[in-house]
Amino acid sequence: MSKVIVIGHKVPDTDSVVSAVIFSKIKKEEGVSFVPAVAGDLNRETGLVLSLFNTETPLKIEEKSGDEKFFLVDHNDLSQSVAEREDVVGVLDHHQLSGMKTDCVLYFRVEPLGSTCSLLYEIIRDKKIELSKEDAGLLVAGIISDTLNLNSSTTTEKDVLYLKELSEKAEVNCDDLAEKMFTAKSDFSGRGTEEIVCGDMKEYDFNGKKVGIGVSEVTSLDYFLKNDDTVSETVKSIKEEKNLDAFFFGAVDIIKQNTNFYFAGEEEKEIIRDLFSGKEQGNYFVLEGVSSRKKEIAPVISEHYQK
Ligand SMILES: [Mn+2]
């Protein structure tokens, strides 16, 4: 059998990277040789998490190069993947299904939890696999990152329980770790606006349209308020550069749970005006109480394109 690479989505985040690392380890203990990989450079939060828990950065694979097979974690949408449909041997995820067709039966497990790390821990728990302190710490970080330390609307009761069990095992204080992680994520020093706007971006295929939705989850919107015009210009140029049919960008205040939602053109602006009850503020709309791309933004925009 060709080599199996465990990989998360393009523009990797902490949940996708930790899932790849831990799932490969579990498989290794079962005697199956899976190799963890990342589909791009790590963001500052993920870099910090790996160093805190003494974990090496996995191999970077930005495109398929041979006859390798892929086990997808934290995504099942091929427009967000380095994998081609026929090379996918399994999926472990917590996102909506996006219509992947397969030629044969494969392992496919998707649950509506706050993070892939929660799902992974559920498997570990069921199988009574022993976790090291550091691996428990990595899973803690994955859950904190995706659920914004249990504050995101995507958080479930299971996430709350799993985070408690894992943080006890890891002997980690979640609030302290969350503060460190969110500070790293909000640190824009030495970064250009393009890097910030594309730092957590996902591409979707909505009914044949190539739609990009980027977010930047920060503890304060200061940067965006100060650089409003540049951000807006960057959002427009990224749409062109990446050849997208539409592009949206949300600067998410994870403390106040608001989003300043930017649009790349008139069409996107109309869509936001129609679908969200936001206050128009020049270059963006203020969406009160909206903080989750997965739950509150992407499904609404997807529905628009199904009409
Ligand atoms: Mn995730």
List its traits:
307 residues, alpha/beta, inorganic pyrophosphatase (n-terminal core), Diaminopimelate Epimerase, Chain A, domain 1, 2 domains, 6-stranded parallel beta sheet, 6-stranded mixed beta sheet, 11 helices, 12 strands, globular, binds manganese (II) ion
Radius of gyration: 19 Å
Secondary-structure arrangement, i.e. CATH architecture of the largest domain: Alpha-Beta Complex
Name given to the CATH homologous superfamily of the largest domain: inorganic pyrophosphatase (n-terminal core)
Helix content: 40-55%
Class from secondary-structure proportions: alpha/beta
Number of helices: 11
Could you name the CATH class of the largest domain? Answer: Alpha Beta
What's the pLDDT, averaged over the residues?
95
Encode the helix/strand succession as letters: EHEHEEEEHHHHHEEHHEEHEEH
TL;DR?
With 307 residues, the protein is of the alpha/beta class.
Explain how this protein is built.
The protein is α/β, with parallel strands linked by helices and 307 residues long. It folds into 2 domains: 4-183, inorganic pyrophosphatase (n-terminal core) (Alpha-Beta Complex), CATH 3.90.1640.10; 193-306, Roll (Diaminopimelate Epimerase, Chain A, domain 1), CATH 3.10.310.20. Helices cover 41% and strands 21% of the residues. It has 11 helices and 12 strands. It has helices at 14-29, 44-52, 116-126, 133-147, 157-170, 174-185, 193-198, 222-226, 228-241, 266-275, 293-306, and strands at residues 4-7, 34-38, 59-60, 69-73, 88-93, 107-110, 201-206, 209-218, 246-253, 258-263, 279-280, 284-288. Strands 3-2-1-4-5-6 form a 6-stranded parallel beta sheet. A 6-stranded mixed beta sheet has the order 7-8-9-10-12-11. The protein is globular. 45% of the residues are buried. It binds manganese (II) ion. Residues 15, 74, 94, 115-116, 146 line the site of manganese (II) ion. Manganese (II) ion binds next to loops.
